Amino acid sequence: MTQSLAPTLFEKTPFGKGELQSKVVMAPMTRVFSPDGVPTEEVAAYYKRRAEHGVGLIVTEGTAIDHPAAVMHKDIPRFYGEKALAGWKHVVDEVHSVGGKIIPQLWHIGSARKQGNTPNEDAPPVSPSGLAVDGSENGIALTKDELKSIIRSFAQAAADAERIGFDGIELHGAHGYLIDQFLWERTNQRTDEYGGDLEGRTRFAVEVVKACREVVSRDFPIVFRFSQWKGGVYDAKLARTPEELKQLLMPLAEAGVDIFHCSTRRIWEAEFEGVEPLNLAAWTKQVTGKPVISVGSLGVDYAFLSKKGNDEHSIDENLRLVDEKLQAKEFDFVAVGRALLADPEWAEKIRDGKQEDAILYTKEAEKTLY
């Protein structure tokens, strides 16, 4: 059998109450294949295929918490209501039947929503300050009472996730969506305790984490996904130094985050200039002491939302790099997005040293649930 270029990626590892069959994490990818927000048998089969071919942990596509302006399309799955939760329980059962683990990504998009978007066309976009990521006005600023209501919705979703058998949750705090809009100074212009300095801007995220931690078991993992970059703003920075990164993340770790999912577009890129050349995940592990998921362009030949090739960073070279970083314990898990979207057997092929047989991602792959 051909030797894998990344054998460490396929070591078993503890997670919550159990064990993952590999360190491969399926990254969350919005698919819009759940009619009226209810995941179908096809959605369950889609996730099951990845689990039965070597993926250790599946993070579902973003799912709407119970708020009228949480998402921007009626066929994005909901994480509330009897029908939707029954659909998700079936997804969980199918993934578990082949030895996989799965967590839902809990999502509110904030001002990334446009007025008139489904499923609730009359609901205005909401955000910290009524500002979109580009700085333009969009929707309304949330009152403190509305913030508390949204926090309760996140907590209810967390409790429901554990009740129906999920293996943990992920909170979407990245890419310019609601939680991230509070973290970023451009979209958070509040003058109350939820704005101002980094401590104030982190408060909403901290309260979401605390509320979720209070309603789930101690050994039920909470993953927090964050990013420096935002949709359309790739040079954005929440933290410009390792010290600022620690100031941002330690309150979240202390509030109950178990694992940080550090979203970057290229896994090999150093995060900060003038210091040790570690990527965002490696720095996050160093400053918090928490396990981390690293991600960015593994298994594809160009970065997300980019037509620029990865140059000398070939797919094979990136696999070798990931194995070295895992062995060095710079990060603990590796998330894979588009490569798994295109080929449900991707992880198995990499494990078996057959990466040349993997189906490469193209935009066409987004049109169906392989």
From TrEMBL:
The record's InterPro entries line, in alphabetical order, gives: Aldolase_TIM (IPR013785), OxRdtase_FMN_N (IPR001155), Oye-like (IPR045247)
Indicate the segments forming the NADH:flavin oxidoreductase/NADH oxidase N-terminal domain, all copies: 9-355
**MF annotations from Gene Ontology:** FMN binding; oxidoreductase activity
Q: Which Pfam families match?
A: Oxidored_FMN
Q: Where is this region: Disordered?
A: 113-134
Q: Which domain of life is it from?
A: Bacteria
One cellular-component annotation, GO: cytosol
Q: Could you tell me what this protein is called?
A: 1,2-oxophytodienoate reductase
